[in-house]
Each structure stands twice: as structure tokens, then as C-alpha cells.
Design a protein that fits this description.
Blueprint lengths: L2 E2 H8 L2 E3 L5 E2 L1 E2 L9 E5 L2 H9 L4 E4 L9 E4 L3 H12 L8 E2 L4 E2 L4 E2 L4 E2 L4 E2 L4 E2 L4 E2 L4 E2 L4 E2 L4 E2 L4 E2 L4 E2 L4 E2 L4 E4 L4 E4 L2 E4 L5 E4 L4 E2 L4 E3 L5 E4 L4 E2 L4 E2 L4 E2 L4 E2 L4 E2 L4 E2 L4 E2 L4 E2 L4 E2 L4 E2 L4 E2 L8 E3 L4 E2 H33 L1
Parallel strand pairs: 4-5, 5-6, 6-7, 8-11, 9-12, 10-13, 11-14, 12-15, 13-16, 14-17, 15-18, 16-19, 17-20, 18-21, 19-24, 20-25, 21-26, 24-27, 25-28, 26-29, 27-30, 28-31, 29-32, 30-33, 31-34, 32-35, 33-36, 34-37, 35-38, 37-39
Antiparallel strand pairs: 1-3, 2-7, 22-23, 39-40
């Protein structure tokens, strides 16, 4: 569907500089754009590329000028970029209804506007909210509560008593509510500790593909509203993650650790159990966290330490070969002096 530059500017709360009637059919990066495409530029380098491209219009954030292209000037071009993409690439609409191959318990409550796709299972007493979509092969066990406008992509598994808020997206292969890893050593064997809690996901949470979130041993594992979790993340039982956090790929969080709001855990970071991380904490990639972290701090390394301290150690480690060489030279000189 085509849009004029004026229509897009209105959607982005921006202004048009140039021909507001310019027809735009698609969105593309500058090096792939063709006539009728919209592109964006957040700095001078990007703008130079966009200006030389075949694109018909450019989203910009600064005081750029163009002789031949319509400019859509906005406060933040990267935010505008995200908003504009939804115009040209809208989310698919799922038809209301239950597929003939789906199995839905007689006492489950499925909103008439919800979509239950092929080979899905909805367990006893579970509730599926308005406009929520269970795509192919999704399994929702008993006593679950799933809110409105949720999308569960293929082969997602939701264990019993899980609670999911509104506008949540869960990507393919993710498992929510599996047993926490709890055992006690008894008479020469590992005896399983029953995991009788559940998982609670707040509104606007998004989980990537193949995420595993264990239910609590007692009480819930909680993911706060607005938190985004990347692919291949493991979250153990009774972990509590605050609001609007970013948990990036292959992070592992051990049991009962608490993470404040607006925190970032970078790729492959690992957190030990029973820790407390404050608000607005950043943990760098591949860090191994063994201690509590106060609000607002950045930690890195393994074992992780505050960034300034760890950076000094990194600098010192780079100098080690030189220092070893100097020490060896000093030892040789001392050895010769002592002989003489």
C-alpha cells in the first residue's frame, strides 16, 4: 500500500521538507533502495549514502537539505525508522477461530476473537484472551491465563499455571514453566525437589526462540513488563527480573537471583544464584557474576568486577609479557653480578 511523504510524516510526528505528495511504496536501506522507496539517515555518513541512492525520500534527524528528495524530519530517526517499518510491513492478522486439528479442553475459555492454530492443545481451565494467537503446534497446559493480543509462535510450550500478560510475543520453540533444577542428595542419590510454583510474564514482554524459563520451586518466577529476552536464554526457578530489561542471547541466570528494572545482561553472561542486581545495571558479554551489584553500575570480566577496576586489570594483563621479559633480564643480570 503506497503512502505519501505527508502521511508518513504525520504517523511519525515529523515534518516534510520538499514534496509532501511524494509517493512511497516501500522501505529499504540506502544501498538497496529504488525509486519509490523510503530510507533513513541518522548521521552525515548515512545521509550521504541516502542522498546518492535511488530512494525517493529520507527520514532524517538533523538539519539536512536535499535538492531532489523529500525529507521527513523527525526528533529521533532510529525511533522513526522502527515506526515506519510497521506501515510497510504490518504484522500478519490471524483469523479468529479454532482449527479442526486443535484439541481444546471442554472447560477451557477461548475468547471468540482468538486464533487457535493447527495441532494446538489448550488444557483444562486455561483462559485465552481476546485477539490472542496460538500458531501451529502450541501447547498450553492446564490452569494457564493468557492475556489479550498475545502471539505464541510455532511449537511454544506453556506449562501448567503459567500467567501471561497482554501483548506478549513468544517465539518458536520456547518453553515456559518447565521444572526448576532442584535436587537434594539423599542416601547416595539425587532426590528431586518438587517444583510447585509457576511463571508470570508481565505485559509487553517478548521472548526469543528457544528460551527456557523454569517455574518456581515455591512461588513464581517473574519477568517484569516490557522486558525483552533474546534467543537461547536460560532463566532458573524463582528468578525475578524487573521491568524493561534487555537479556541478550545465551545468558544464564541461576535460581532465586533478582534483577532490577532497566538492566542489561549482554550475550553469554552468567549469573550465580541468590544474587541481587540493582536497577540500571549493565553486565558485559561473557561476564561471570558472583556478587551483588548496586544500582547503575557496569560490571565485566569473569569473575565480574566493576568496569573501571576490571579495565585496569585488562591493561595490566596486556603488559604481562613485557614485564615478564624485564623480570627475566633483571634476574639474569643479578645472577651474573652475584657470580662476579
Amino acid at each position: 500500500m503506497p503512502f505519501t511523504a505527508a502521511e508518513i510524516a504525520q504517523h511519525l510526528q515529523g515534518e516534510v521538507v520538499g514534496n509532501a505528495a511524494t509517493q512511497l511504496m516501500g522501505f529499504a536501506p540506502a544501498d538497496q533502495a529504488k525509486p519509490g522507496d523510503l530510507t533513513f539517515a541518522e548521521n552525515e555518513t548515512y545521509f550521504a549514502a541516502a542522498e546518492q541512492s535511488a530512494a525517493s525520500a529520507i527520514i532524517v534527524g538533523g538539519d539536512f537539505k536535499s535538492a531532489g528528495k523529500a525529507l521527513i524530519r523527525v526528533k529521533n530517526p532510529r525511533v522513526a525508522f522502527a515506526k515506519a517499518l510497521t506501515l510497510f510491513f504490518p504484522e500478519p492478522k490471524f483469523p479468529a477461530g479454532i482449527h479442526p486439528t486443535a484439541t481444546v479442553a471442554s472447560d477451557a475459555q477461548v475468547d471468540p476473537t482468538a486464533h487457535v492454530g493447527p495441532h494446538c492443545v489448550v488444557g483444562a481451565r486455561s483462559k485465552i484472551g481476546a485477539r490472542t494467537a496460538l500458531t501451529a503446534g502450541v501447547c498450553v497446559a492446564g490452569d494457564c491465563k493468557i492475556g489479550e493480543d498475545v502471539v505464541l509462535f510455532p511449537n511454544v510450550t506453556i506449562y501448567a499455571r503459567t500467567e501471561i500478560g497482554h501483548r506478549v510475543r513468544v517465539h518458536a520453540g520456547t518453553v515456559i514453566g518447565s521444572d526448576g533444577f532442584g535436587y537434594v542428595f539423599d542416601d547416595g542419590a539425587h532426590r528431586k525437589v518438587p517444583q510447585v510454583g509457576n511463571v508470570i510474564l508481565g505485559d509487553d514482554v517478548e521472548l526469543g526462540a528457544n528460551v527456557a524459563i523454569d517455574r518456581g520451586a515455591l512461588g513464581p518466577t517473574v519477568i517484569g513488563k516490557g522486558t525483552k529476552i533474546d534467543n537461547l536464554v536460560q532463566i532458573a526457578h524463582n528468578v525475578r527480573i524487573g521491568e524493561n530489561c534487555l537479556i541478550i542471547s545465551q545468558v544464564g541466570i541461576a535460581g532465586s537471583t533478582k534483577i532490577g528494572s532497566y538492566s542489561i545482561l549482554a550475550g553469554q553472561a552468567g549469573l550465580a544464584g541468590h544474587l541481587k542486581l540493582g536497577n540500571k545495571v549493565t553486565v558485559a558479554a561473557q561476564a561471570g557474576v558472583m556478587n551483588d551489584i548496586p544500582d547503575g553500575e557496569t560490571w565485566l570480566g569473569s569473575p565480574a568486577q566493576p568496569d573501571r577496576e576490571m579495565k585496569r586489570q585488562f591493561v595490566a594483563m596486556r603488559r604481562l609479557p613485557e614485564l615478564v621479559k624485564r623480570v627475566n633480564e633483571l634476574e639474569r643480570k643479578l645472577g651474573r653480578d652475584s657470580v662476579s
